[in-house]
Amino acid sequence: NAANASNAFPVGAHVVLRLTDGTVLSLEIVKPFLPFTKCLVYVVRPESSSISDNLPSEVILKIYDPRYIDERTQSKKYGSSRVRTHVWTLEAEMEAARYRQEIAEGQRPDDFTVHLLYRDGDAHPFLWEEDFYRYLKESSENEVAAFRRLTSLQGTVIPKFYGSGNVIPPPGTRAIEPPAVLLEYISGSMTLADYHKGLGVSERANVIPSIFRPLVDAVRRFKELGVYHGDISGKTILVSSAPSSSQANPEGGTLTRAVLINFGRAGVREDRESEEDWE
Predict the structure, then answer these.
(1) For residues 187 and 238, is the Cβ–Cβ distance under 8 A?
(2) What are the backbone angles phi and psi of residue 79, rounded to the nearest 5°?
(3) How far is residue 153's CA from residue 204's CA, in Å, rounded to a whole number?
(4) What is the structure's pLDDT at 79?
(5) What is the DSSP string of the chain?
(6) Strand partners of residue 183
(7) What is the model's pLDDT at position 1?
(8) Are 69 and 81 in contact (CB under 8 A)?
């Protein structure tokens, strides 16, 4: 359940990631970034292999796993009713997978809408699983598409993108293979929101306002590159004391790099979209 997300993969555990080209990586969990919200986010250490030789010693693994999405435990008001917590079960996940399979095989129409969740009392649990699954699948696709469009900015104002794929769960434990991405780990960084709150800094580092200029200039280029972010805030901007991932981050000191993260709500211009539509 979402409440147990902190135990999803404990430190020292190994995660198997199958990349889109079919190669398989084993990743050791080094550190989680808590609290998890929509995704599980970890620092991981790739185990030695011919593929991992092309990766840094530590990278970010971001897993879009509906089992642990925070929407399960957030009480929201819809009209006069309060939505209860939606507990994950393997049975509901399996039924949602069958539902998608029937759609894929043409046995039933794809008539799923969020309105099904609030019609005639409590929706069947598999419909909630389907909603969470679709939401995170779309988020992962948005993130991958945005990073592919923004290749020229990777490693500076956005993290480097190392690949995407699916996490392979132990046999019999899941009905899905959650999507995941591998990104640059910017050590010693914090969100701009946490910096302003003074969190995680014993000795407040200095922020040079000019570090945001490259980021602002890059965001202005997003439109011509065919991308919009959709969620820019202090929570999605990292500040770091190293200008690139190859340099060590000293404690405290001066923050010299601003990096935009979290492209799950991003949009990418389709080839068929006209200039007017993209506006």
Answers:
(1) no
(2) 65, -130
(3) 28
(4) 52
(5) -GGGGGGSS-TT-EEEEEETTS-EEEEEEEEE-SSPSSSEEEEEEEPSSTTGGGS-SSEEEEE--GGG-GGGT---EETTEEPPP----HHHHHHHHHHHHHHHTTSS-----GGGGGSSSSPPHHHHHHHHHHHHHHHHHHHHHHHHHTGGGBTTTB--EEEEEEE-PPTTS-SS--EEEEEE--TT-EEHHHHHHTTT-SSPPEE-GGGHHHHHHHHHHHHHHTEE-S--STTSEEEES-SSTTS---SSSEE-EEEE---TT-EE--TT--HHHH-
(6) 60, 161
(7) 53
(8) no
Residue 84's pLDDT is what?
A: 66
Report, as ranges of residue numbers, the positions in the chain whose pLDDT lies below 70: 1-6, 49-52, 74-84, 120-121, 199-205, 242-254, 271-279
Return the pLDDT at 25. 95
Question: Where does the chain hold its CATH 1.10.510 domain(s)?
Answer: 187-279
- How many angstroms separate the CA atoms of 59 and 259, rounded? 15
User: What CA–CA distance (Å, rounded) separates 254 from 241?
Assistant: 6
Residue count (the chain): 279
Task: Tell me how far apart the alpha carbons of residues 269 and 146 are, in angstroms, rounded to a whole number.
Answer: 10
What pLDDT score does 245 carry? 45
CATH class of domain segment(s) 187-279: mainly alpha
Q: Are 76 and 82 in contact (CB under 8 A)?
A: yes
What's at 89, amino acid-wise? T
**According to the model, what pLDDT value does residue 250 have?**
45
Predicted pLDDT of residue 242 = 63
Q: How far is CA 56 from CA 2, 175, 184, 241, in A?
A: 30, 31, 8, 18
